[in-house]
Design brief:
Elements lengths: L13 H11 L16 E12 L2 E12 L5 E10 L9 H13 L8 E5 L11 H9 L3 E5 L20 E6 L2 E7 L8 E7 L3 H10 L9 H22 L6
Parallel strand pairs: 1-4, 4-5
Antiparallel strand pairs: 1-2, 2-3, 5-8, 6-7, 7-8
Length: 244
C-alpha cells in the first residue's frame, strides 16, 4: 500500500507537534469522500509496548477483514524502538512511525481504517485516527475505550440499550459519540478520523461489533495480534535476533 509522506518524525519538541497539528487540521473533512455502499475491506490498527534494557519498544499490528463476511484477509505488523515519550494529546507522534511501517506492508488496500484511539474527539481535533489519515490517504475512524475530558466537559451516559448513543458536544461542536454496543456493557467512544461523517462511522462500527466484544472486530483482532507479536518480538530483541 502506498503511503503519503506528509512530514517526517525527526521531531521531539511539543511546540513542533502543535505546529504540525494546526497545519493538518485545516484539511480535515467531516464528510464521506467515498460510497459507503462499496465498502469491501476494513482494517483495524492497534499497538502494544514493552521495555528491554531501559529502552521502550512497540509493535503495531493491522488486521484487515472482509466487511461483509467478517473473514480475516490479511495481517501485517511492524516493530521498533519508541523514541517519543508519551505526551497527552500527541500520541500520533509516538505511534505513527510504526503504523506507517506496518501499512506499507499491506498487499491489499483497505477502504476504511479503524484505529484504537481518538480522531476528532481531541482538544485540537487531531487524535491519532485523524493524523494517520493524511499518511494513509484513506477514511479513518477512531474508537476509544475511555474518554479524556476536553475543556472539562464530561460525556452523558447513553441508555442501557444496545445501539443507544449520546453525542459529546463542546463549544457547540460535536466532537464525538458515546455508543452502547451491548446492554450492560461499557460504551465506546467513536469519533471521525477524516474523510467520513460521524453517522457513517457509527454505522460501520456497529456493523463490525459481534457478541465477542463491545469493540469492533478489526481493532479487537488487531489487539489480540499485538499481544502475540509482543511476546515474539520481546524474545527476539532480548536475544538480539531483531536489529535495533
Amino acid at each position: 500500500m502506498e503511503i503519503k509522506e506528509v512530514h517526517n518524525f525527526n521531531i521531539y519538541e511539543k511546540s513542533e507537534f502543535v505546529e504540525i497539528q494546526n497545519e493538518l487540521k485545516k484539511k480535515i473533512m467531516l464528510r464521506n469522500t467515498f460510497n459507503k455502499n462499496n465498502i469491501k475491506l476494513v482494517a483495524g490498527v492497534d499497538l502494544a509496548y514493552w521495555e528491554n534494557e531501559n529502552e521502550q519498544y512497540g509493535t503495531c499490528c493491522i488486521v484487515v477483514i472482509d466487511y461483509n463476511t467478517k473473514e480475516i484477509v490479511e495481517k501485517v505488523n511492524s516493530v521498533g524502538e519508541i523514541k517519543v515519550p508519551y505526551i497527552p494529546g500527541f500520541l500520533a507522534f509516538r505511534e505513527l512511525p510504526l503504523v506507517i511501517e506496518a501499512s506499507k506492508k499491506l498487499v491489499l488496500e483497505p477502504d476504511i481504517f479503524i484505529l484504537d484511539g481518538n480522531g476528532y474527539l481531541h482538544f485540537n481535533h487531531m487524535g491519532i485516527a485523524t493524523h494517520a489519515s493524511f499518511f494513509l490517504n484513506k477514511p479513518t475512524i477512531g474508537v476509544a475505550k475511555s474518554y479524556y475530558k476536553i475543556d472539562n466537559v464530561d460525556f452523558v451516559m447513553p441508555e442501557n440499550i444496545e445501539g443507544a448513543y449520546t453525542d459529546i458536544v463542546i463549544h457547540n461542536d460535536i466532537y464525538g459519540r458515546v455508543l452502547r454496543t451491548h446492554k450492560n456493557v461499557k460504551p465506546i467512544f467513536i469519533s471521525v478520523g477524516n474523510h467520513i461523517d460521524l453517522g457513517t462511522s457509527t454505522q460501520i462500527v456497529s456493523k463490525l461489533v459481534d457478541k465477542e466484544s463491545h469493540i469492533p472486530m478489526p481493532t479487537r483482532l488487531a489487539d489480540i495480534e499485538t499481544h502475540k507479536m509482543r511476546e515474539l518480538y520481546k524474545h527476539k530483541i532480548s536475544n538480539n535476533v531483531v536489529r535495533r
